[in-house]
Amino acid sequence: MGCGSSTPVQTVSAPPATPAGGSGNIGGGDADPSYRDRDSATSFVNKSSKTSIAESRQIDSELERARNEDLHKIKMLLLGAGESGKSTIFKQMRLLYGNANRSDEDLKMYGVVARSNIVVAMRKLVTHLGDLGLEEELDRESKNNASIADNSMTCREAYDELRAYLVDNSGTASAQDPGTANGDSGVGENGGKTDWVGNSPRAGLAANNDAKLFLAHYKAMEVLWKSQTIKQVWVKRSAVNVIDSHKDYLNDIARIASPDYKPTTQDILIARVRTTQVVMEKYRIDGIDFEVYDVGGQRSERRKWIDCFDSVTAVIFVAALSEYDQSLAEAKRTNRMVEALELFRSVCNNRAFANTSIILFLNKKDIFMEKIQYSDIAAQRPFCDYAGPTKDSDHGVLYFIQKFKDCLIDDEFNDSFIHVTCATDTNNMEFVLESTRTIIMTDNLKRSGFLGAD
Ligand SMILES: Nc1nc2c(ncn2[C@@H]2O[C@H](COP(=O)(O)OP(=O)(O)O)[C@@H](O)[C@H]2O)c(=O)[nH]1
Ligand SMILES: [Mg+2]
């Protein structure tokens, strides 16, 4: 199993040299080589023996070369369930080891994605506000606090507008069409000014439509987001799977709505685009070639994983710590953490990874630490055996680490192969990825027999 340096090291040795000497019938007609004259027989044996030694040396050197190449090439997969943070880590690697600059085309795509991510989050929050029966609360708040943002609308009016246009699609077409983005040219108008982001064909139709809705209704979103009532909905967001990091977008709506808006590095890191194909980036770091693969995590995407399983040096398995109280987007009754544990079990015990280093990233520690204050681990049915104190993130993390360790059938998980991470924090990722790189390279040398096992 490939989860730590406790694994016995397998050394690759050259096959034994081919036995010297021909076995008759070589060189035409003679059934018995003893009929040959001695010299020619001897010379045949010597020649043949020389050939075998040369061949053997060649095989040795080929093996050596292959082994050196393997040591200088590291194939790494990012695996884990959907929304655990794989693509964010992939983006951090690009910032750290690759080309941190993004083309305008890329930036425009992320601009559309950021705006559409806000609409997706708002749609869920507005729906959930109604489901939680908080409309009256919103009315009270509106009366007490006639306007919040700019005297132009109350939070109840903002809610009604968003409900009509984002959820019920009952708004009138003229009001819904902001006359903003121009789909054909890719350049749109925004409040009478040219909108830098405009449309992005790469973002897809749904995201472009949501980005248009954003420009038409962002003022209502700002007003509702500033209300007290929406804060109560936010605390209960797990039920509707709002992406936690999008709180940063919601806190910055005016900037993202501006015609001059260009996504920042942080905006790009928190942008959520569902990965639907295997993506690979190559890096050369300190003379070693790294191939890093990012894959889609949803159940429907996992059959594509198998295509990347060949000769994998390391798997970074990503699981979101904060998802202990959430259900899967694709199967509402399945707890996300349970799904991650099962997936981890099948990756660790997969024969394709018998000689692969498996590193575990327990991600989204920032959200976990916040959530643990109001969402009890033991209150989740699959984790009712949690006996630690409530609101205690250290105990909570240790509890989940043990759950992941228990997934290994016949091996121990070395603690240095586990990291508790925040993928959206570049400083944290720089540290974690550098130490992961060292661990992977050391483990690779051990597995190849160049270093002794611990
Ligand atoms: N707050 C926070 N958000 C995160 C973290 N890791 C990922 N995210 C966000 O979670 C969402 C899903 O992440 P993504 O990398 O697309 O997940 P993937 O499906 O595994 O590729 C994105 O919007 C990220 O910004 C984290 O450690 N903390
Ligand atoms: Mg992804």
Automatic annotation (TrEMBL):
One of its GO terms (biological process) is signal transduction. Residues 21-30 have a biased composition (Gly residues). GTP binds at residues 83-88, 244-245, 269-275, 294-298, 363-366, 423. Signal peptide: none annotated. Mg(2+) binds at residues 87, 275. Residues 1-13, 41-51, 171-183 have a biased composition (Polar residues). Pfam families: G-alpha. Residues 1-51, 171-199 are annotated as: Disordered. SUPFAM superfamilies: P-loop containing nucleoside triphosphate hydrolases, Transducin (alpha subunit), insertion domain. This is Uncharacterized protein. The lineage of its organism: Eukaryota, Sar, Stramenopiles, Ochrophyta, Bacillariophyta.
